Amino acid sequence: MREFTFTDMDFKVISERVYQACGIVLGPHKREMVYSRIARRIRANGLTSFTDYLRYLETHSDAEFSHFINAITTNLTSFFRENHHFEYLSEQIIPSLLETNRESRRVRIWSAGCSTGEEPYSIAMTIMDKFPSSWDVKILATDLDSNVLSKAQQGVYEPDTITGLAANQLKLFFLKSADEKAYRVKPQLQQQISFKRLNLLENWPMKGPFDVIFCRNVLIYFDKETKDTLFRRYHEMLSRDGHLFIGHSETMGKEHDEFKNLGKTTYKKICNG
Q1: 5, 98, 197, 229: which sits with the fewest CB atoms below 10 Å from its CB?
Q2: Contact status, residue 113 vs residue 216, Cβ threshold 8 Å
Q3: Dihedrals phi, psi of 133, to nearest 5 degrees
Q4: What is the pTM of this model?
Q5: Among 31, 37, 106, 184, which one carries the catalytic annotation?
């Protein structure tokens, strides 16, 4: 028996609020997930029902709404997840940028939906020492969830979350705590990354252009209209011949002829004219 009554209307209202705020589509298969996540917020606020919580969300939006969105968004990630993207970055994109950007000596990479930081730190490890020290190389890491951004900025990870890293990577890029229960990202890696909160459906304050955009396992939450809009906006934000990486379970429709499909969810911007 459930702790709280959870009606069809409760689920409908929550789904609509989430979609209006950030474009995430919560289908019927997400109902149990929504219950468990919002039940935590009901307890945290000392309330007794979903109806009370939704009323509280209306009257205390400034204080509660970010907690509400943070509770819904899913943040599953790992270091060098879908490693073929990092291999392509290292073996194909970086050598090309060293040639095409040799005059500006500027490189910009965006991790959109960076979660707890494993992706941007993996990018930073991949590009470390690949560019001369005189180059201006920066990584922007953004996410909707302020809680995971805070963890990403701290750069501290438990042993079970760094199991995919090689021994030399741990030695080069992490500091181990005395009790070996935590690994902290070294400052020289953190200095390459700026972490910012960003709702992808709102205005983007950064100017770009970006040479590479990682937006992986984020688009799966959006409907087709929203995805199409984001693909167009990414195209505008990419530099000439820039690259876009999306998640292994995500696809870009053939109607998006502004990108060339390179395989393995890797795309290259096509410029007309």
Answers
A1: 5
A2: yes
A3: -65, -20
A4: 0.81
A5: 37
pLDDT bin (cut points 50, 70, 90) of residue 273 is low
Q: In what order do the strands lie in the sheet with 136-143?
A: 193-197, 136-143, 106-112, 210-215, 238-246, 266-269, 259-263
Q: Which of 17, 41, 108, 143 is catalytic?
A: 143
User: What gap in Å lies between CA 271 and CA 41, rounded to an integer?
Assistant: 47
- Residue 143 falls in the annotated catalytic set: yes
Residue type at 273 in one-letter notation: G
> What is the signed CA dihedral for 91, 95, 100, 102, rounded to 10 degrees?
150
Catalytic, 102? Answer no
List C-alpha distances in Å: 133 to 23, 33, 136: 40, 47, 8
Collapsing DSSP to helix, strand or coil, 24 comes out as: strand
Pull the structure tokens for residue 64. 């509660």
DSSP 8-state symbol, 187: H
* Amino acid symbol at 256: H
